[in-house]
Design brief:
Blueprint lengths: L31 H7 L3 H38 L7 E2 L2 E2 H36 L5
Antiparallel strand pairs: 1-2
Length: about 130
């Protein structure tokens, strides 16, 4: 330290490029499996059949939930007649449940169905875009 000023730290400026992230590429090159579907081969029928079975099974499950939940309400009012005398927000409980509260449930059930159906299709596309065997 002979009276010299200390060295200044060198600051390097690095230019950072901005990148726009828009999501996965929309165009996919058809793989061998996709060609089987487009050519309507027996293997393509098996692939499409599995997707259709899964979508059908999803629809059946959603309809069963709908039937059990909404269908059990009138049954509950029949089994416990005292419930029909209950008033909620100034209206009879059956009217509130069957006339008002069932609609948000239907929207939620529909939202779940669409979300799950899209996930099934995405899984199917992922299976189709795997590396050729």
């Amino acid at each position: 330290m002979s009276g010299q000023p200390p060295e200044r730290a060198r600051v390097e400026r690095v230019r950072v490029e901005r990148v726009r992230v828009t999501g996965p590429a929309r165009r996919r090159t058809p793989g061998a499996r996709t060609r089987d579907i487009e050519a309507e081969t027996r293997l393509g029928e098996v692939y499409m059949g599995s997707l259709l079975r899964e979508q059908l099974w999803l629809a059946v499950r959603v309809l069963v939930v709908l039937a059990v939940v909404v269908g059990s309400l009138p049954l509950a009012f029949h089994v416990w007649p005292g419930l029909t005398g209950v008033r909620l927000l100034g209206a009879p409980l059956p009217w509130v449940l069957l006339g008002v509260a069932v609609y948000p449930f239907l929207v939620l059930l529909g939202w779940h169905y669409v979300r799950r159906a899209e996930r099934n299709e995405a899984d199917f596309l992922e299976l189709m875009s795997e590396v050729r065997e």
